[in-house]
Amino acid sequence: MTDLSINLNKIALIxxxxxxxxxxxxxxxxxxxxxxxxGITVHPRPDQRHIRPRDVHQLAELVTPVDxxxxxxxxxxxAPAMADYPGxxxxxxxxxxxxCTLVPDGDDQLTSDHGFDLRALGEQLRPIxxxxxxxxxxxxxxxxxDLAQIELAAKIGADRIELYTGxxxxxxxxxxxxxxxxxxWAAAELATSLGMGVNAGHDLxxxxxxxxxxIPSLLEVSIxxxxxxxxxAMGMAHTVRAYKALLR
Length: 248
What we know:
The chain is 44% helix and 17% strand. It has helices at residues 9-15, 25-34, 53-63, 88-95, 118-133, 147-155, 166-170, 177-193, 209-212, 225-234, 236-247; strands at 3-7, 39-42, 70-75, 99-102, 138-143, 160-164, 197-201, 218-223. Strands 1-2-3-4-5-6-7-8 form an eight-stranded parallel β-barrel, surrounded by seven helices. It is globular and about 45 Å long.
């Protein structure tokens, strides 16, 4: 069965709209774990628009001792230190997640919206991947379903890829849905044949998740925005269980 990792960025975004620590990110992570989440994901950015370095440390303390739950930190490997943000790689090394997902996002992006161009950045990423793997972390690269790019991901040492599913979600109920889905299927098959695991994430929701999860080699999905919206209507505990049911 495909694992469900809950991205808590939007819980932190709500908290940051007021002073104080309400809603509490760590408490909501525990609620997700108690109701069957297989992982907790965060994407700390230098501008600290949602998840902050302190959250990352507190979540690492919560999740690391739990054998059946993984901690995944995603972000731009080239993000530098800014104020009390220590830099992405430094924060990852301080907190030692089970998985580090490298994402090519900039401060001016509202959200992640494309995968890596490894023709341009592959050799810069290679030593970063090795550095993190040498510390025992699994390293995943955020990728479009481009077969040539996925071959490069294997060559530079990635353990997994995370397929960017934004275009798949945007095509839902359109005439080109099957074409885009088949591209992701082929990308997943290639990655598996090259010895990499396959994750996926971005705009997956209760409507489109089951179809995507039919890809046999899919190991993990990371869901945050839609999960948070559904939690407003359904309650977070019930929403975790609903997404887990779709993945079965």
